[in-house]
């Protein structure tokens, strides 16, 4: 499988995931735990790699991540300037 990147990043949502997580005063471990409770098996290292752009974010993960952070998928993708759900 060929991996396509945007410059040096493998995703466009990582920076906004980090922003929303920090505004929620949530650690990467806490976010990983919330994702696991929603059925997405992801640990702190995966969250870190997403935020730094080193891990792809498959489309099926975005709604789960958005729900855990209380934001919309459009906001995570940079389509919508309004973060609130």
Q: Which CATH-level-2 architecture?
A: Orthogonal Bundle
Please indicate the percent range of residues in DSSP E strands (runs of 2 or more): under 5%
**Helical content band:** 40-55%
Q: In oligomeric terms, what are we looking at?
A: single chain
The counted number of beta strands is: 0
The CATH superfamily is lambda repressor-like DNA-binding domains
How many structural domains are formed by the residues?
Answer: 1
Number of H- or I-type helical stretches: 5
Mean pLDDT: 91
Largest sheet entry = none
Please explain how this structure is put together.
The protein is mainly alpha-helical and 85 residues long. It has one domain (14-76): lambda repressor-like DNA-binding domains (434 Repressor (Amino-terminal Domain), Orthogonal Bundle), CATH 1.10.260.40. The chain has five helices and no strands. The chain has helices at residues 14-23, 28-37, 44-51, 62-69, 73-76. The N and C termini lie far apart (34 Å).
Would you spell out the secondary-structure blueprint of this structure?
Layout: H1 14-23, H2 28-37, H3 44-51, H4 62-69, H5 73-76
């Amino acid at each position: 499988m060929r991996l396509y990147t945007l410059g040096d990043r493998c995703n466009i949502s990582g920076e906004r995931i980090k922003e929303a997580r920090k505004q929620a005063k949530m650690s990467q471990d806490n976010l990983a735990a919330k994702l696991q409770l929603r059925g997405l098996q992801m640990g702190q290292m995966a969250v870190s790699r997403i935020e730094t752009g080193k891990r792809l974010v498959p489309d099926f993960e975005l709604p789960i991540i958005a729900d855990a952070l209380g934001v919309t998928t459009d906001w995570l993708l940079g389509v919508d300037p309004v973060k609130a759900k």
